[in-house]
Amino acid sequence: MERPWRPAPTVRSAQGGVTRRRHCSVAAPRARRGLPPAGARRSRPRECDRSDRHVPARAGYRLGVEIAGVDVVARGASVRGPRGAVFENLDVDVDPGGLLVVHGPGGSGRTTVLLALAGRMRLDGGAVRVGGHALPRGGRRVRELVAVARAEPAVGLDPDLRVRELVAERRWLGRRREGGARLDEAFSVLGIDVDPRTLVRDLPPVEALGVALALALATRPAVIVADDVDRGCPEEERTRAWQLVGLVLGVGCTVVAGALDPPDPGVGLDPAPGLVALPRRSRLPERPAPADEPDASARSPRRVLGRRGPEDGDARASREGEGT
After folding, report:
1. Buried b / exposed e across 44-65, counting CB within 10 Å, b at 16+?
2. How many distinct structural domains can be found in the chain?
3. What are the pLDDT digits (tens) for 64-112?
4. CATH of the domain at 259
5. Sheet bearing 84-94, strands edge to edge
6. What percent of the chain has pLDDT over 70?
7. Which residues lie across from 18 on neighbouring strands?
8. In a 10 Å sphere around its CB, with 0-12 CB exposed, 13-18 middle and 19+ buried, how is residue 293 labelled?
9. Is 22 inside any structural domain?
10. What is the domain extent for residue 116?
11. Is residue 291 in a domain?
């Protein structure tokens, strides 16, 4: 029971002065300031009934997950590596809540394109803008808007961890942002129901993709980047993999995906994806040998400095025999 406030009693000192003892109760001063008593539990506001609200027929809205996607625009984007251009003169226009599919064989620079659009790879030319923030000046804000679900070897799920360990790690890293409710909603939106004791290396390809997308979706990003959507998937499982991407689109998030092949039109992705095809550039073209240059098989063996081969030992033995 809260004690009523009363003025503190006065005490007359021996010197004739008057002092006022500090009152032990602070409940009344807090009440005068409109604050609850110290140690009192704060009542949480009752959740409003959403049954009378209009709920669109989309998977994300069914569970209360609503994300506002942003646009992704690139003009003349280029990235160069030690062996030349990885990709160059890339123009991309992705509307908010849209889908971009970058497809090409391994070594074509597909992962580099995804990381560059996500603000994780430095550009050597051109410009990229995500949600009105241009790179590289707005790189920090772009990295906050974009979540990379999978772009190996830079970003990926640790194959030696269990699913429950990945979830616990995401909760610890995200602290309050990715609480248990957000993670449960993300897994429910994608329909992922796996044994939490399963190792990542033992997950089927589609389930591994779903876990990566759910962990990224729990952060409520405006853009999700996922590479190797159809990796390791047989023909009948590729439709399921692209359907997971479609569920992420249903929440309102913009998706930038990478795959070996573009999705089948029969999957029914809405909106229709924009496609970027990349050629293979993993190897430099071999230069033909000049006509006057002898064949490599007919050349004399090159001597390695600092090392003695069998030819050097034989030659030295013959010289020593001639000297004797």
Report:
1. eeeeeeeeeeeeeebbbbeeeb
2. 1
3. 567 888 999 999 999 998 888 899 999 999 999 999 999 998 888 999 9
4. 3.40.50.300
5. 84-94, 72-81, 125-130, 133-134
6. 64
7. 12
8. exposed
9. no
10. 72-277
11. no
Q: Classify the C-alpha dihedral 22-25-28-29 as positive or negative.
A: positive
pLDDT tens for residues 158-195?
Answer: 999 999 999 888 888 765 555 567 888 889 889 988 89
Determine contact, residues 106/282, Cβ cutoff 8 Å. yes
Q: What digits encode the pLDDT tens for the residues 20-56?
A: 444 444 445 555 555 566 655 554 443 333 333 322 3
Report CA-CA distances (Å) from 249 to 33, 36, 242. Answer: 48, 44, 11
- Look at residue 103 and tell me if it is in a domain: yes
> Which pair of structure tokens corresponds to residue 81?
């590596």
Pairing of strands 223-226, 125-130: unpaired
pLDDT for position 255: 96
Question: Tokens 């989309």 — which residue?
Answer: 58
Nearest to 149, CA basis, from 180, 188, 179, 120: 120
Asked if residues 296 and 96 have their Cβ atoms less than 8 Å apart, the reply is: no
Instruction: List beta partners, residue 255.
Output: 99, 224
Non-local (6+) Cβ contacts of 296 within 8 A are: 289
262 belongs to a structural domain: yes
